[in-house]
Each structure stands twice: as C-alpha cells, then as structure tokens.
Amino acid sequence: MGKVAAEIKVMPNSPEIDLDKLQETLEQSLPEGAKINRFDREEVAFGLVAVIPTVLVPDESGGTEAVEEAFSALDEVESVSVQNVGRI
Predict the structure, then answer these.
(1) 3-class SS of residue 51
(2) Confidence band of 19 (pLDDT split at 50, 70, 90)
(3) Domain 3-87 classified CATH 3.40.640.10?
(4) How many angstroms separate the Cα of 18 from the Cα of each of 33, 44, 76?
(5) What's the pLDDT tens digit per position in 33-72?
(6) Does position 21 have pLDDT exceeding 80, yes or no?
(7) Fewest CB within 10 A of the end CB: N or C in the chain?
(8) What is the pTM of this model?
(9) CA–CA gap between residue 33 and residue 17 (Å, rounded)
(10) Residue 63: which of 55, 51, 73, 72 has the closest Cα?
C-alpha cells in the first residue's frame, strides 16, 4: 500500500484568525496515519487568506475523507476542499 499526497484548501471563518495557530491546530487534528508535508497560503479576498496543507495519507479506501472531516470539525474553519491529489 502506498501513500497519497493531497492539497487541501482550508478557509478560515474570519480574516482575524491567527494562521500560524490554525496551522498548529490542523496538525494536531490529523487522524492516525496522516501527516502534513508542508503548508502554503493563498490570498482570497478582503484580507482572507486560505491555508493549503499538503497532507500525506495512506492509499486506502476513504482517502482524504477522514482528514477533511477532522479539519471541518474545527471551530476556526469555514470550509475545506481538496484541490489536488496524487500518488507518491
């Protein structure tokens, strides 16, 4: 079984969210077996910046679903969407 790398766009619910703290919270919320390889940021609009972690997950049924659910459950997060997925 291999691994999959997924770029997941995480939109904070406010421009006032501390993005460094959000990144730490995202790392802490990861399900077992998942790991964040790197973080990118993307300016969206009106001072809102999306955090885009590249998450490594085992290549099994469900894929990124557990990670998406974990990120979506955080109070600071407005929305979560997978941008790109590929095998590594």
Answers:
(1) strand
(2) very high
(3) no
(4) 26, 16, 9
(5) 999 999 999 999 888 999 999 999 988 767 899 999 999 9
(6) yes
(7) N
(8) 0.92
(9) 27
(10) 55
| Domain ranges within the chain, ordered by starting residue | 3-87
Both tokens assigned to 58: 């085992």
The percentage of the chain sitting over the pLDDT mark of 70, rounded to a whole number, equals 98
- What pLDDT does residue 76 have? 96
Of 18, 10, 14, 3, the residue nearest 39 (C-alpha): 10
